Prior knowledge:
Blueprint: H1 2-9, H2 14-31, H3 38-45, H4 49-56, H5 59-70, H6 83-91, H7 96-115, H8 117-145, H9 158-173, H10 179-193
Amino acid sequence: MTEVATGRRSRITPEREAELYEAVLDLLREVGYDALTMDAVAARTRSSKATLYRQWGGKPELVAKAVRHNKPGNVADVDTGSLRGDLHALTAREDDCTMQQNAALMRGLFMAVHGNPDLLTAFKELLVEPEMAEFQRVVQRAIDRGEVRADCPAVDYVVHMLVGAFATRTLIDDQPPTQAFLISYIDAVVLPALGVSTG
């Protein structure tokens, strides 16, 4: 059974996988996590529900992987030679319109995570932990270059700071996150916390 599933799993092309993930994100924006069903994904993508379950196991894993796939490449692949340059370059990978859409999507998913332990587990394993590891590599490069002290207490909170700014911009300021806001926040909050000069 496992061999059959593995064999079938490998037949989904990267292009087809991208189509499926895009459809999942569209449905999430339309109806939210709780109302999203595997039946709806199957109908939207002209797939069989059995194929979806074989490939992804269930809704939490499918949603987490769709969100992960939507991210513009690996964080650790950005290497400008400075931490400030890296963080600015990462911010510039999404335009303001995309950022606004993703912020709305993530707000809905943050709420869904609280009532769905399986979604929380999938998010931690497939999204949060890989993202944390990538940011740790970016910060480690800064430590290796001598930009950041290895014992700086803020080193473990870079992702918390960035996600916090992204997630709370609408709540606090009633405005969506933008490139200009995040770059200003990085220079005013994140880099000084890490002991990095922005001058």
